C-alpha cells in the first residue's frame, strides 16, 4: 500500500469562487497582472480541460504559477480539476461574462500597449 500511495498526489482539491460572488475590484485586481492576463488569454484560446498548469509559457516558477492560479480561481475566472497526475484548467468565460459583461472581451483584445 505504501508503494501505491507514494505515486499518488496528495494535494488538496482547489477551492473555486463563483463569479456571482466576486466584486469588480477583485476581478480587476486579478486581471491587472501581466502573467495572469497571459494565462487567461491562453485559456481563452484553448479547448476546455486540455491545459495542464505546466503547459503555459510564463516567466515564473511553479510556486508563483500556483499563486497566480489561486488568484484567478478566487476571482471566478478559472476552474481547475485534477485529471490523473495533472491539474487541468478551463476559463469560466460564460459565468464570468454573465457577472461582468464585456470585461473579458476588453482584456482579450487589448494589445498590451495601452
From TrEMBL:
PROSITE patterns: HTH_ARSR_2
Molecular function per GO: DNA binding; DNA-binding transcription factor activity
Protein name in the entry: Transcriptional regulator
Family annotation (Pfam families): HTH_5
Domain HTH arsR-type: 16-111
Organism whose genome encodes this protein: Streptomyces botrytidirepellens
Keywords associated with the record: DNA-binding, Transcription, Transcription regulation
Record-linked InterPro entries: ArsR-like_HTH, HTH_ArsR_DNA-bd_dom, HTH_MetalResp_TranReg, WH-like_DNA-bd_sf, WH_DNA-bd_sf
SUPFAM superfamilies: Winged helix' DNA-binding domain
